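This entry is listed below:
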Amino acid sequence: MDILVIEGGERLLGEVTISGAKNAALPILCACILASGPCHIEDIPNLKDTLTIKKLLMDLGLQFYDKNDHIIADPSNLSGYEASYELVKTMRASVLVLGPLVTKLGKAKVSLPGGCAIGARPINLHLAGLKAMGARIDLEHGYVLAEADRLHGCEFNFDTVTVTGTENIMMAATLAEGETVLYNAACEPEIVALADFLKSMGAQISGDGTEEIRIQGTPELGSGKIRIIPDRIEAGTYMAAAGLTQGNVLLKNCNISHMESVVSKLRRTGLIIEPEGEDVRVVGPREIRATDIKTQPYPGFATDMQAQFMSLMTLANGTSVISETVFENRFMHSLELQRMGADIRIEGHAAIVRGHPFLSGADVMATDLRASACLVLAGLAAMGETRVHRIYHLDRGYESLEKKFKGLGAKMRREKE
């Protein structure tokens, strides 16, 4: 198992290119199941999660071809309908094959999902939506079994906002008979990106990006084409890193219109974040100001940026309150930050962070993807050496993280434990 060794104290300077968004790429790859011809996808990030979903899709019969600037997904040999435990257990997003398989083949057998240990994330709303569309659902031996002669349109209200639930039901509805209306739907840019891809195949979708999405089903979809949107969480991570190190970093391929809440809060901490043509300049302050945040569904502050923001607040002047409303068990990184000298107190769904002048390098252990990034950021700013264990989480969601940070002047290396 690898560890990441970081020598802190270096100011980050230079430019870095933001990769395509993992959370947009995964559902778009699954949506290729729905196509009747080859799909062309640009800017797929090279990550463990995207490799896992491609492996799962290849097990179902899809074929992938790498071109210079994009990949081609060919679903013409689609025949399998089972997503095995061995693949699904490592990545919760694998459940996104459920809706496309049921609506395209009339059946699906998908293992109940795994992924990061950040609290309960059940798929009950995915199943309720498919049931409302006429699917027959059974749970046997850890698998979801779903069957339908042809799904039919319906009106479905999500009890709570769910991104993957919205994506699964939206994909299922594209080949259903009649109109499907989704209420309390997720509004993330990744939802809009998926809808754009489906529309490129001929799907009839309106309202994507709002809480009410309408899908008029069609008997067949054609080929699709899209470029994956920039990863707003990766961009936010590098912004926070610039803030922690008093850096001056130019982010290329960064769309700050997708991250207005995060950018607003980072600016309140003292960061200068300004567009420069199609790029974004980020300059860290001499003194970080304490700022409160509360995670919420989009367009609120992204829960996937909570851990990185906490790292920033450990060095702020003053006390900040970080409230987590999306996932339980998402403060586990606070214990590791305490090992580095951070003053953090957990009170229910809130973390009270009292800023310190400095952090000290230490051995720390990552518990999930964003916690890994949080500890890397803390290591960049800490005095001495930080060793981040269990960094396989990082490889799931950050493309070329070491290379990119080293390109900005960071001192870090990967070692075998």
About this structure: The chain is about 30% helix and 25% strand. The CA atoms of residues 292 and 397 lie 26 Å apart. Residues 22-227 form a domain with the UDP-n-acetylglucosamine1-carboxyvinyl-transferase; Chain fold (CATH 3.65.10.10). Residues 115-120 have pLDDT under 50 and may be disordered.
